[in-house]
Amino acid sequence: MAEAVDFFNKTSEPPGFQVKCDKINEFCRDHRTCRDIPIVLVTSGGTTVPLEGNTVRFIDNFSIGTRGSASAEYFLDQGYAVIFLHRARSLQPFARHLPQTHLLDILQIQPDGCLQVREEESQKIAKVVERYHSVMREGRLLLVDFTSLGDYLHLLRATSRILNPLGKRAILYLAAAVSDFYIPVDKMPEHKIQSSNGPLQLSLELVPKMLEALVKHWLQEAYIVSFKLETNPDLLIGKARQALNKYGHQLVIGNILTTRKHSVVMVTQNGEESIQLNSGEITAGVEIETKIVENIVTRYNKFCEEQSH
Ligand code: 9Z3
User: Fold this and answer.
1) What is the model's pLDDT at position 277?
2) Residue with CA nearest ligand 1 atom 6
3) Which of 191, 198, 143 is nearest to 27 (CA)?
């Protein structure tokens, strides 16, 4: 815990931190007073690890936020409210369905100068736009972005503390791919590293395990779901169980890098349950996140019932 405090003391808050916190506060206040639906904090995308104070270079990872953005949509479909804490420019709920690379190809200019979406695409896009506007009208989705590891952790702590008074109505779904290693500010050069100094050797330190602080101090009654990512299947369940035992939260979802889009394992104190897509579902374009979210909703309802007895 002391290491976590030290990390926050040494790492500056992200740009616009107070404005973001005010928006999160307002969103949660509205939900506390006017509605009785769970709020899910979904984290999504990778974190950068800066190598320089005035950052030119950074270390990044593969995550583009497919898991987080798809899951956020399915939580919204369940009627929940969602705070979507995501890496800037990674995938976002609803917007992810718009063609990212050939956006200009699907637009046409009409003789009267108005812009129109090509007919082949327009029905699909209209549905997405309708779903997006409907959740925004209902005030059920808040988008908050981060870039670096420090930004992410400051926002995670602040949001968790804001959610804490909601008790078990808060759910955490930690799908972001968060770096385990970083360079503390006091060990980082202020200016751009010069190649004229020769080959570069880096020394990275371990990021303090924030799940401990989160479960014990920031959000004590919430339903907390973390993810464990491995590349070696032999390690997955053991590592997931280790995290569960160490932090004492409700659920760890294990996934392997290469199979994560069609296979995950839900690990709890009571056992393991695997969730898979079969070949028919894969061909039909079913997303595994729909099954993951349905499974969590069942578990969460049971958790709430047990807590109220
Ligand atoms: C995950 O395991 C996510 O499922 C993925 C999703 C990052 C694999 P994509 O964005 O990928 O859909 O391409 N997230 C958590 C990864 C992580 O950093 N977990 C830490 C660990 O494994 C613990 S919280 O040690």
Assistant:
1) 98
2) 67
3) 143
